[in-house]
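User: I'm preparing a small set of examples for a lab meeting where we compare how different chains pack in three dimensions. I only have the primary sequence for this one, and I'd like the structure in token form so I can line it up with the others. Please keep the answer compact; I'll paste it straight into my notes.
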Amino acid sequence: MRLEFSRFSPGQAEALVGFLTGEEWPFHASVQEATAIRRRVADGSYDDAESRTFWLVADGERAGLVRLQDLTDHTPMFDLRIRAAWRGRGLGTAAVTWLTSYVFTEFPAYRRIEGNTRQDNHAMRAVFRKCGYVKESHYREAWPAPDGAVYDSIGYAVLRRDWVSGTVTVPDWDDEARLPGAG
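Assistant: Understood. Below is the structure token output for the 183-residue chain.
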């Protein structure tokens, strides 16, 4: 399979509308509406100082979308969407590997990249781990779904130094035991 990443441009607004409204996105918090997408494109929300969006093109077809956000905060986050027909083929791992390299190459001062997913999104959680990201947070009942259910939100991150060295640094989860008054 041939994979390419192509930067989104505002002239592709209708393609973006079709992409976001043309499928179910079971692990995303809200339903996308065409008018709101067009407004966000016009406002620069998909490509400005804060964000950059890229199509994941597989064998010539727009199979996915990567949106980098919070680029001016020096700790960007991302949203990844893979079309249903392309899921389970390794595109998530390829996209996260690519975006990690892109961010750390394009923004040499950035020390980390973050991403969140629902607790029940086992495929995305596996992608994070394969790509060297580490679970750093678990927010209980923090992810409302369109059907009214509420899920836990799980946060992952990769550090530049781990990416460079090919290692994984696990957070110190037991630090509270060493705090004054603990015990």
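A couple of notes for your slides: Helices lie at 13-21, 34-42, 91-106, 122-130, 160-165. The chain has a mean pLDDT of 93.

User: Perfect, thanks.
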